[in-house]
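This follows on from our talk about sequence and fold. Go ahead and set the record down below:
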Amino acid sequence: MHRILVFFIAAILFYVVTNFSGGNVGVSSECINDTCSVTASTSLLSIGFGIVFIVFAVMFPRAKRNDCEKLAGVWRRFGAFLIDFIVIILALSPILALPAIITEYTYTNEFLWSFQREFSRSTDNAVIIPSAFILLVGLVYYFYKFTLLSKPTIGQYILGYRIIVFSTNMSKSVAFKRVGLSMLGMCAWPIAIIHGLIKKRVFWWDSGSGSRAILTLAANKPIKQD
C-alpha cells in the first residue's frame, strides 16, 4: 500500500474517532490544590472505529521497500513517533473511557457517553490509573512487536524507514532493550533530540541496542535529503 494512501486513511480514522465523541475522547483528571476537573467521553462509533484503527495500523499491507545505508534523520523519526503515539492513544482511548463512564453511571443512575465534573470521587484513581497504565503498556508493546519483527510501524512506514540490527539477528532482548531505552528518551525528548543531532542521527537507544533506523525507498527512486 502506498505511503500517502496509508497517511490519508489514518487521517480519516483520526477524524471519525474524535468526531463521534464530540471532538474529545478518553478520560482525564486534573487537580490543582482542592479543585479537580474530571472528564470522560466516548461512543459506540468511536469504540468501533478505534478498533478498526488499531487493526489497520497493525495489519495494513506494507509494500516491499529496499533498505538504504543512509540513516533516518532526527525530525523524520520524531514525526514517526508522533504519528504512532497518536494512533495508539486514539485507538485505545475510546475503550478505556468506558470504565469511567460506567462508574459514573453507578453514582448518577443516568448513563451518558460523556461527562465533566468539577470535583473528584474516591473511585477516580481506581479507574483512571489502570487506564493510563494500559495505554502505556499498549504503546510499549506496539513498538516492541514491530521492532522484533523488523517491520516498520505505521509512522515509520509513512515516513520511510525501519529498524534493523547490524551485528546479529533481531531478538527479544535487543527489541526490549531498544524500546526501553527509547521510552526513557520519550520522557526526556528535548535532550534526546539534541543528542541525536550531535551524534549524527544516532540516538542512545540505537547504540545501546546495536540497532539503527535506516531509510527505505521504492526501487529506482533516489533518497530525499531530510
Summary: The mean pLDDT is 87. The beta strands are 26-32, 35-41, 66-71, 114-117, 161-165, 211-217. The first strand starts at residue 26 and ends at 32. Residues 124-149 form the longest helix (26 residues).
